[in-house]
Write a structure and sequence with these properties.
This protein is mainly alpha-helical and about 100 residues long. About 90% of the residues lie in helices and about 0% in strands. The protein has one domain.
Length: about 100
């Protein structure tokens, strides 16, 4: 059965569009792969930064505890000296470790 030339043109245009979309899809796969790789790398970088941050935060917390403990021991020692009490410096040093 003969078809109208206008319908033939529409069908050819649709096939051409399908081919273009298919070819673009192939190109996008490469771009999408690169995008996915960069996203994965970004996520890994963020996780690494978070680990570094958490490790640093833990170290700072430990340092704060040590400084607080040292301050408490110095205060105890100062009070003992001020009140002219005997204070065992060996005990102080043993606790400082």
């Amino acid at each position: 059965m003969p078809t109208h030339p206008k319908n033939d043109q529409i069908m050819n245009d649709e096939n051409l569009n399908d081919d273009m979309m298919f070819n673009m899809g192939e190109q996008d796969n490469g771009d999408m792969g690169e995008l996915m790789d960069s996203q994965v790398m970004e996520e890994e970088r963020m996780r690494a930064e978070e680990n570094i941050y958490n490790t640093h935060l833990d170290a700072v917390k430990e340092e704060v505890q040590l400084i607080q403990r040292e301050g408490e021991m110095i205060t105890t020692l100062e009070r003992a000296i001020k009140n002219e009490e005997d204070y065992d410096m060996r005990e102080y040093l043993a606790n400082a470790r």
